[in-house]
Amino acid sequence: MNTSLVHIIKKWVPEKSKVIDFGCGDGSLLKDLIDEKNIRGYGVEIDHNKIQECILKGISVIEKDIDEGIQDFESCNFDVAVMASSIQCLREPHLALRKMLNLSKQCIVTLPNLGFWKCRLDLALGRMPVTPNLPSSWYETKNLHLCTIKDFETLCFEEDFVINEKFFLNDKGTKSTLASTFPNTFASEGVYLLAKK
Amino acid sequence: MKTKTELIKFNQGLDLESGARLNTFDLMVETYGELNEDKNNAILVCHAFSGNHHAAGKSSDSDALGWWDEIIGSGKAIDTDKFFVVCSNNLGGCSGSSGPLSVNPESGKLYGKDFPLVTVTDWVNSQKLLCDHLGISKWHMVAGGSLGGMQALQWAISYPNKVKKAGVFATATRSSTQNIAMNEVGREAIRKDKNFMDGDYLNHNLKPKNGLKTARMLGHITYSSEDIMDQKFGRKFQDIKSKIEGTVDYEVENYLQYKGEKFSDTFDANSYILMTKAMDGYDASFSSNGSLEEVMKRIKAKLLVVGFDSDWLYPPKRSKEIQLAAMNVDVQCSCVILKGEQGHDSFLFASDRYVKIIKGFLDSK
User: Fold this and answer.
1) What is the torsion angle, in degrees rounded to the nearest 10, for the CA atoms of residue A21, residue A25, residue A27 and residue A33?
2) Which domains are present in chain B?
3) Which pLDDT belongs to residue A192?
């Protein structure tokens, strides 16, 4: 995860809050949040090697396929649920978002933007986009539901999700005026802090 | 691996959950490796229903390997070059600790069927006295599978300041209705053996071997799984020369006959009843009127919960229940479901991932 993104997420996660990170990878983000913000954190991961790394780091991790359902966690009263760069890999992203907001007060979602100009250019030239945020070729990618910034915000509107904050990063993983002003074309990645109405 | 086996006497006695009291009791204890100067490298492993204190290596009197030999030893998942590993035979057992086969110091006679009912919590309390006796202020880890996993969990609940990590494998916060049902069939087989004499067989110089054997045969079916039995035996016929019983047709029958026979030679029937009753009776939430969260709140240890996909006795969903209850009350807890080649017994065997996960958990901060 790039440093600007980590920086933004750290700003949004309150001190001592209870956090669940869906698709937590090797647990680095949770480790940082535990060390710096004193959170109570849990990760959900499906990759065996990454689970192993979490355990070695001392991060609480649950082996689980998010597509199989996360409603069990509704009793846990999370303050923040994080889903970084994995929402587009799920079978039913809109339902996953609803469930995340049922089990947590706020939800941090990051997603690659298919409207990014380089993606548009690739498509205009007749090929599937490959960018730093969409690094895999079409036959290897785990992405099932790619969308643009505009699409995602339309979904949030239709589902009554409140966008409390948002940030846009260019393909170098940094904030830029261009990406913030015209995100649908110039942001490579969108970062959202969502809540229920 | 430095191994020591000793019988330790506890003259302070123990008040049991049932209200009965043992004025004195013995624990048969085996240790592996060495306790360091700071006494912070000690690991308690708790045995399952038919296990005993002999957890690793060869025993002093035979070549039999310990029940968790695949996991405990030099360079293994629980590395005896680093850790001092302790295992005791549970109270009520039949491998040297006070139980139905020991002499009641009050009457001078064998306890037999009169050995009081013991519970998982009683075992944990007796192991706490062992912990004090060894001068250990905090276990680096308490771990076990099945009935041993219940003890590991109960340790974390009963003595939160004495457990840094708990390895809770192939187990549940309480036995299911089906678990109780299976155990009752085993007990019934023993009780209906004509040699059982209402549990008084020792005084008649008898042994309810047939009942024990049947009970164990059923047990072995539950520790395995449909797929594993298919793979291991299929529908292969037993060759005539190695048939244990004339009535045997298939290999699986011969296997169960063999296992049952062996078990009934060594295990005590009253112990069988006591151990299965303890297993059936376990409910972590019992002390707080059924609220698991209430008791889990006390835990300060980090938990590692491991379930195995082929285990139908304590299936993965039971592991997930422990994990969820822990997460509800902010207890640090990881939960993984491993591919198990051996059904419920999978927790005994060292698969690559299992070993890595235990090592990682032990090495983590």
Assistant:
1) -50
2) 3-174+282-363 (3.40.50.1820), 179-276 (1.10.1740.110)
3) 97
Structure tokens at A20: 């669940």
Taking CB atoms and an 8 Å cutoff, what residues of chain B touch A58? 302, 364-365
Restricting to B residues 292-321, those with a Cβ less than 8 Å away from any Cβ of A are 302, 304, 320
ipTM: 0.92
pLDDT of residue A2: 81
Q: What is the 3-state secondary structure (H, E, C) of chain A?
A: CCHHHHHHHHHHCCCCCEEEEECCCCCHHHHHHHHHHCCEEEEEECCHHHHHHHHHHCCEEEECCHHHCCHHHHHHCEEEEEEECCHHHCCCHHHHHHHHHHHEEEEEEEEEECCCHHHHHHHHCCCCCCECCECCCCCCCCCCCCECHHHHHHHHHHCCEEEEEEEEECCCCCECHHHHHCHHHHCCEEEEEEEEC
Residue of A nearest to B320 (CA): A62
Are B67 and B52 contacting, i.e. CB atoms less than 8 angstroms apart? yes
- Would you state the pLDDT for residue B1? 87
- Helices B120-133, B147-158: axis angle to 10 degrees equals 70
Domains of chain A are 3-196 (3.40.50.150)
